[in-house]
Design brief:
Blueprint (H helix, E strand, L loop, with lengths): L1 E3 L6 E3 L4 E7 L2 E6 L9 E5 L4 H10 L3 E10 L4 E8 L3 E6 H7 L4 E6 L10 H10 L7 H10 L25 H11 L15 H6 L3 E9 L8
Antiparallel strand pairs: 1-2, 3-4, 3-10, 5-6, 5-9, 6-7, 7-8, 9-10
Helix pairs in contact: 3-5
């Protein structure tokens, strides 16, 4: 099954093995995986029950510990998560693979909620993210952000401006990369925060985004709706 996204002339081929589960106050509604995603949308990763993830949860007061951006790969005809990860750096990962490996952990947040930012360029946002591909993870940026949560003067390791692309300044971690890319697309999604202070929870809280659902795998023998 194919369709054309209204925001961008891309082709989406709907896999049989995904579903989107939308959390409601009194239960869950399961509906087919969305036929149209958009480049530049955000995906947030829910914490695992590991000691490290618990530390991040407690530090950031959030269930989300990682953030990435959706991008379309024309050559492979598939959706991918474009993000920067510890030990791996910036890379593209097939969305289908990520959902299969970590069911129920990836939440989809639609960027440009309600199309209230008509000047937002999804192509420019993805192009900026691609500039960081294969570059190292922003460990120093992560350290600076972590120190900001401690009862210490914020200028112990002052934040560095991250808005000048992959060749200048410090490298970002996951949610910082989203902030930089959306700025490149023409929207400051976090007007009260500099990019170097943006964490995954801020993506979920931003008026620029709206929650669309949580990805789950379906049994292979399920029929397409």
């Amino acid at each position: 099954m194919t369709c054309l996204c209204s925001q961008s002339p891309i082709r989406f081929q709907r896999p049989r093995t995904w579903r989107l589960e939308v959390a409601l106050p009194y239960g869950h509604v399961v509906r087919p995986f969305p036929r149209c995603l958009s480049p530049g949308d955000a995906v947030l990763y829910r914490a695992d029950p590991t000691p490290l993830d618990r530390v991040i949860e407690l530090t950031t007061h959030s269930i989300w510990i990682h953030a990435g951006m959706l991008a379309w790969d024309d050559d492979q005809a598939q959706w991918e998560i474009l993000d920067t990860r510890a030990w791996h750096g910036a890379r593209r990962t097939p969305l289908f693979q990520a959902v299969q490996e970590n069911p129920g952990h990836w939440d989809h947040f639609r960027a440009n909620a309600g199309e209230r930012w008509p000047g937002f360029s999804r192509a420019a946002a993805v192009a900026m993210a691609d500039e960081y591909l294969n570059r190292p993870y922003g460990w120093l940026s992560l350290l600076r952000d972590g120190l900001a949560h401690l009862p210490l003067p914020c200028n112990v390791l002052p934040a560095r401006d991250l808005r000048y692309g992959a060749e200048e300044g410090d490298l970002p971690f996951c949610s910082q990369l989203l902030a930089i890319c959306w700025l490149a697309g023409g929207v400051n999604a976090f007007p009260h925060l500099p990019p170097e202070r943006v964490e995954p929870v801020h993506v979920a809280q931003s008026l620029f985004c709206e929650y669309a659902g949580t990805f789950w795998p379906e049994p292979e023998d399920d029929e397409d709706d």
